[in-house]
What we know:
This protein is 64% helix and 6% strand. The strands form 4 sheets. It has a 6-stranded mixed β-sheet with strand order 1-7-8-6-5-4, with helices on both faces. Helix 1 packs across helix 2 and helix 24 (599-627) packs antiparallel against helix 28. The longest helix is centred in the N-terminal third of the chain and has 29 residues, at 85-113.
Amino acid sequence: MVTGAGEEPHGGPxxxxxxxxxxxxxxxxxxxxxxxxxxxRPADLLLAVFAFVVVAVVLGAIRALPLGSTEAADDVxxxxxxxxxxxxxxxxxxxxxxxxxxxxxxxxxxVRNQWRDALxxxxxxxxxxxxxxxxxxxxxIENATVARAVLHGSNPSIFIVDTAxxxxxxxxxxxxxxxxQRWWYRTSAALLLSGLAVGTLTPFAVVLALxxxxxxxxxxxxxxxxxxxxxxxxxxxxxxTSQGVTAADLSVAGPQGRARQEGTVADGSRIRVHLSGxxxxxxxxxxxxxxxxxxxxxxxxxxxxxxxxxVEQLSLACFLAERAGVPSPVLVLLGEMPGETLVLVTTIPDxxxxxxxxxxxxxxxxxxxxxRLHDAGVAHHDLQPGNLFISGNRAGFCSLxxxxxxxxxxxxxxxxxxxxxxxxxxVGPATAVAALRAGYGxxxxxxxxxVTQPIALAPWGWRAMRAASGCLDExxxxxxxxxAALPAPRLERFRWRTIVTAVALTVAGYLLVGQLSxxxxxxxxxxxxxxxxxxxxxxxxxxxxxAAENLAAFVPKRLSIWRGxxxxxxxxxxGVALPPTVGHVAVNARYLHHEEVDDxxxxxxxxxxxxxxxxxTVLLLIVLGVxxxxxxxxxxxxxxxxxxxxxxxILAIVIVLLAVPQTRAKxxxxxxxxxxxxxxxxxxxxxxxxxxxxxxxxNVLLSVAYLVAMLAALWSVGAHPPILATAVVYLAGNxxxxxxxxxxxxxxxxxxxxxxxxxIGIPAHQAxxxxxxxxxxxxxxxxxxxxxxxxxxxxxxxx
Length: 799
């Protein structure tokens, strides 16, 4: 292994660069290809997305909170009034002149050295002007709060100039040089802050001009391309020769361009050269961030987010694998070239990539190599056929690009799943598992079978994961034999349904904020009587006791009401990540299973408790409608045309599915046994009037407790609502909450309750404030208490 010698580079200790090859701090001289070789840097696109998100958030906040944003802009302007006007205007003039001088000087320098970057800068500046002009025109036409909060009614010329200047700075691509970087940052800050001091810019205008200019500059630079700073093949060859590596026939290998090249050395051995510099920053970052967010940390491992960190991690993995005697790429050179380009040279192992034609002995040899790699503390993470080779009885790895030093035990088990999947497609699952036992040695087959899931193949892509699902089932069967399947550990942080719920929650929150923006809630809440809040909390607590009794009514054995109360509290926490009914059903089923209730009784109890809840709610709505004078004619119990059409479509789909023999056989084989087990329990539950009476009473108590909590919330803000009408409003909100896809019915419940209370004569400011207090006592406050209860029940293995 060879490392460069000389002074310590920017990347940190252990990587050296020759002082003689150091680059001046200013603009480097042209290399002959400067200005002609253009690249689209992935980092530019990622940064543009980040800037767009910031701009969207600021504009969304202004539109959602029009009064607050305008007041905030006015307050900042008043705070800056003590600054002497002559000083503020003098600072603005100096900043403007300095910006103009820098623009002229940078254009002269770029035209002489990198004229394509000069075109990028001019294009970015013009695009910034156009974008700012279009934005200001739209804001003026709308005559909305955005124009008042951003422009303050003043001339938008300063805003347009500042946006164009920031975009121009990004387009020049000179900020990578420290001399220019200092001046660009200082001048940009002076230009924006002086506009704020003069009063032509508001805080929102400063943020939008800065990130809007960055957005335009990064997009233009990505579209037109920036000058490549990676060395040419001739420069790379000369530098490698100076470091003692005589390379020849270097050529681009793979879609990375010049960032990865392959060639030969003097003895005929093949080498692979990895380059990391400004051109490669951000490459694959989106995919790695997604893996880091999607998978649990023990599964994703240590994800190197930057290209430099990936190269350094690869060099360490190659070094450890070489020490362990693993047939894999060997580290030859790690050093830094002029221009802050990190260079890694590794050998390319002899052997044709792929597992085609693998024999049982070759498969066992691959697992033996994987065992040595794992013993060195390295997990491979990507054991696709193209990343390994099997030649007779010799097997190893062609690439360690995704390898992770210091990997966890779970990461190593996932390696085994990937290797088993790759080999099972060639030699069959039985032979692959036999090779695992022969080559890898003793292994906890149950633990490996537990992680034999499609998500273990996440680095291979979505299609490969789906295609390998059948193979994974066969591998799991070979590992476990005739034993029952083990519970699979959770490898993902979240599933797609969680994403859908989060999106729905975000939309609901945005709509709710829009509803609250026109009401002075702070004034109403500040005058609320806090003495009523404990009554609302008490009503909320009683609802969980009633829910526990409702569930216990249909279970033949005696259940602890106190334990059931804590289980229902835990469901308040679990329901945050799921729609309300789904979360409660899942928690109740798990609790009853721990109480040694059979599956048929669990299904019947949970089903009957939900049915009685729905029937009780509908009957209460009808009775209260009659008592409040609305009568039966006001209730549209018969479904509308849209509902009937939807039911007919569902019925048609069911008929079509049952008409297909394969689908009919699968449905009858899966659903019918469960129905046969549940139906007798369901009939038994219905045949006991006492159970039905207890369940109905529990549901009535639940509704009354919620009504008490709502009345307490209304009384706390000074409202005096009619009790029966308020009960109708609550029951309507409860129905919407049960059907809403968001956790706890967020958004839908608040909207229905606020609208209903307003309809029965409660002023809007009191109705919305009362709804917030009610939801705090019945939804938000039980979440942390439910979390504590959930942890306690989990510790006692009840859930």
